[in-house]
Amino acid sequence: MSNSPDFNHLKKVTSQVRRDIVRMVHACQSGHPGGSLGCTEYLVLLYFHVMKYKLPFTMEGKGEDMFFLSNGHISPVWYSVLSHAGFFDKKELGTFRQINSRLQGHPATEEDLPGIRVASGSLGQGLSVGIGAALSKKLDKDDKLVYVLMGDGEQQEGQVWEAVMFAGSKKVDNLIATIDYNGQQIDGPTEEVNPLGDLKAKYEAFGWEVITSDGNNIEELAAAFDKAKSLTGKGKPVLNLMTTVMGKGVDFMEGTHKWHGIAPNDEQLAEALNQLEETLGDY
Fold first, then answer.
1. What backbone torsions phi and psi does residue 130 show, to the nearest 5 degrees?
2. 180: closest CA among 118, 253, 114, 247?
3. N or C: which end of the chain has fewer CB within 10 A?
4. Predicted confidence (pLDDT) per residue in 158-188, tens digit
5. Predicted TM-score (pTM) above 0.85
6. From CA 217, how far away is CA 277, in angstroms rounded?
7. DSSP string across 169-190
């Protein structure tokens, strides 16, 4: 959360988080590695440079930036980043998706896991929640921001467009939403399942400011976050249309929907870990 990003450290965290993701999903033979690997730079930057937040964690989030993960199936990357950021002990990552674990497959609130403010993974709902939080901050005269991450396949949900229309018309300008635009969803490429069209033009038509970024280039993404923040408070919600590669960092997982929701076997895990440097120590 410093003013100037330490990209060397951020890249070390990114590599370690990717190791955590593949190990977590392998250990329980369940989960979603593809999108998690693709969004690693985004979550690392958010928690290690961009957001102003407080520890210990509180649900209210008053006087601090807030984040909501709409595509909750990419929980492995979020859990890993939260642990490295000090929300809970990283040893708990070894309990992912186990019975009675606080680290459920989709983030949930009943387990009181620090960092989680709303259950998510029922796609289409996260932007609505983020808008509610942003409006609450306005009522409280709280000048901090609300961040939301969505998937691109999620843009096929009708509730997303109700929320997009509402945020634009109500000038919810303390909100920065991001779309993980990797072109893949559970059943195949988004262009084959249900083409999304020109998302930039669509959001702009609903009264949003839209920027684009390479979500796997950490320097470019940091600059995009700076640009997005500079656009807040000017009467429009902000969207970062962020291009990523599903499965980024593990060559046999990259760019295909086939790794949306399956776990690597022992040999595949070893191959993946060979490609990902251990930088901060495995849990």
1. -60, -40
2. 247
3. N
4. 999 999 999 999 999 999 999 999 999 999 9
5. yes
6. 17
7. HTT-TTEEEEEEE-SEETTEEH
